[in-house]
Amino acid sequence: MRRITGKAKDETLIELQNATESQTGDENSGNGVSSSSDKTLLPGHTETDNLQPNKDTVFFKDGLRRIDFVLSYVDDKDGEKKQERRREFEANLEKAGLELETDDKTDSKDQKTYFLKIHAPWDVLATYADVLKIKVPFKASDIPHGQDVPLEWLTHPFRLPKHIMHPQPDYFTYPFDKTKTDFFLINDKDTFFPPSTRNRIVYYILARCPYYSEGREERDKTGIKRLLSNGTYTAAFPLHDCRYWKRARNAECESERYNLYKNWASFLCFYKEQPINLIRKYYGEKIGIYFAWLGFYTEMLFFAAVMGVICFTYGVLSYDDNISSKEICDADIGGSIVMCPLCDKKCPFWKLNSTCLSSWQSHLFDNEGTIFFAIFMGIWVTLFLEFWKRRQARLEYEWDLVDFEEEQQQLQIRPEFEIKCTNKRLNKITQEMEPYLPITSKCARFSLSAATVIFWVSLIVACIIGLIAYRLAVYAAFASIIKDPMRKIQFVGRFITPQLATSVTASCINFVIIMILNFFYERVAVWITDMEIPKTHLEYENRLTMKMFLFQFVNYYSSCFYVAFFKGKFVGYPGKYSYMFGKWSKLRNEECDPGGCLIELTTQLVIIMAGKQLWGNIQEALLPVMRNWWSSRKGRHHPENHYSRCEQDSVLQNFSQLGLFYEYLEMVIQFGFITLFVASFPLAPLLALFNNILEIRVDAWKFTTQFRRPIASKARNIGAWQEILNTVAILSVVTNAFIMAFTSDMIPRMVYLYAYSNESSMTGYVSNSLSIYNITQISESNMPEDRGYLLNNSIITCNYRDYRYPPGHQREYTHTMQYWHILAAKMAFIITMEHVVFVVKFFVAWMIPDIPSDVKARIKRERYLIQEYLHNYEVEKLKLQLSASFITEPHTEMSSIPDKHEVLSECL
């Protein structure tokens, strides 16, 4: 049965007569009313069984009332119980003032699904706009926009049409007050509140509406979320305004989805700006602020990418000046240096020139330009965060979010908190009773939550330790498989060394482990956050954000931290090697290549970062398409316009409340890669730039074509992510300083060049950076199984990477003075770089105000105008009241009225 409800009980009998508007083909996207026969209607309900269903429309059958929200359900084996819940819930929605209309299952393509359409009349919208303090226009803005910029014509190819960038005029706004409707610019009550505001209000009611009968109070039986979880309803969503690929023919349909698809989601628009104001108007401020941040981050990445390419180009151009690599590759120098085995038993003695290729590769990323790039990135990240604060402040003003924080804290209490917290106490500010969570329950929940987080972080650390053990164990296997380079260098052995094979396979395995752990921990994090019962939506998101980022930080970055700061640092020397779990484990700690560990860190970073971006884009682009195809594979035997707007949107993917959270998380993890370890891979910002250009259009395409319309919600900033970005920015200065000092080979080369080189050149550096060990002193457990090469060539010493005295010296195998000079230079470099970058960072942050001066002026201007207009409004209202009382009072008192009127007006 189809019905239209929500009318007054004393409503008189009416007859519904609908004129036939025959529309065919694509013109069914209009909102005309189909033919019907005359019927006598009961009060409060309208039978519309004989109406032909309107197809692609966002209005009720009468073609007048807009569909603000849709609930869908099917009949199943628990039908009676669910039907009772639906009956009580819908009855309570009607009591709240909402109007309902149901489409029968026979009109749906699967012949199973009912669609309950919800319309919020003006009285409901006005009441809840007052409750939620929604800001609405009261006067057109008289403040001119920015002045003309010189050479503005150069940016025209990147601009969008003005009606797309600014879909509505600029107004001064004030929180809606139901008692002052004539104060606001209300031209048409039906269109005064935009669809995003309407669906936000309706969802606010749905989330708090109970589904128990009057007189029975069961607190847990409240809200649409619970009805969705127990299967009473299968979906709840607002409607898109039209089909995305074609503009609606009816003028009352805004076609904003079409405009977004054409000017934003199209990949041909990758070089154009985003229509941020239209995104905000259609999807709400929370999604709008995300895309504004992502767009700004991508713009700033362009400058970092340019500097990274310059740094990499310097490494390529200085290729021929790399004396160290030439010495390593020289048959007379590197070919004559015999190196000690890199593992026990399986690894042979090897010649230094076998690492010729990796030494050239290291120079591309480990050169003098890397130091300047690391310092530049420390300053870049500060500029990015400071300029974003200014951009964010401008958006806060333009989107009426300046005073939103307090409203959000007080008004957006989660329904789950209200339901589960049965205890109440007096709020000292509002002097009203409100639910609260007892301190004992809060401590118990937090303790369990902390223990769960610690367990999962410990699990990641255990996986990393296992991965390190894999690297140590498999290195010997690769060393025995890849032929001895001293005897016969095969083609594979020339390009794939045991170190490279171990690093690549370990990085790939690490990436798989990261993805698996992410899959499980995401669900655990949501569960423990739900268990804590946060009070507000903002508090819920902040707690989940901190838990997820802590886990992801350890999960994604721990292997990079190992390669950067631990590998090759605790090796020992041939007579006294260090082992991971003691000598009994036979897992000897890894050594770095003679060129340093930086190239391995680069390999690790490229595999994890590029792999994550590739996998993320595949998931984001393909999964929604496959799911939508699977859900709509049956019943689609007609063109799209033969199905109602409800049906077309119902087969799309639901955009969950945490959908935006995962988008932020993906970008912040990427931000960590391009800041924490950027000194090892200057091209990381370029990869991120290409990924983000694609990411913006993929996300836009998903939102406009693959997802149902999200419920609009407000947010004045990016929330807890701002503090996380600030923390990562500070940490990045420290990590890059340590990478340049301890992972890169730059400082030892500089010390040799300026303190130990006789010719003020790098000639002889390779020999200087190696120490000598007497082979006869190597223990039997460390010697290789195959010793034929030693017997044939009568070699008695081997070389290893360290600064120790040679055999026969009175302090043999202890660190030389050069080692301490290099260590002192490394510490001095760290302190100098950190202080320079931090001083510049804080100076830049101090120089750039968080709020632009013109925005401050506009805020003050708007507040002044609000006070002035409210004052004038109250004065005029009082004048009208006094005039009315003047007419009704006796003639004898008429002489005194004008005087009273003038005095009151002057006082006001």
Counted by DSSP, the helix tally is 29
Report the major sheet: 4 strands, antiparallel
Q: What general outline do the C-alpha atoms trace?
A: elongated
What percent of residues are in strands? 5-15%
| Helix/strand structural class | alpha+beta
Poorly predicted residue ranges:
1-54, 483-493, 892-908
Report on this model:
This protein is α+β, with helices and mostly antiparallel strands. Helices cover 53% and strands 6% of the residues. The protein contains 29 helices and 14 strands. The two termini are 58 Å apart.
Structure characteristics:
908 residues, 4-stranded antiparallel beta sheet, 14 strands, disordered N terminus, disordered C terminus
Summarize the structure.
The chain has 908 residues and is of the alpha+beta class.
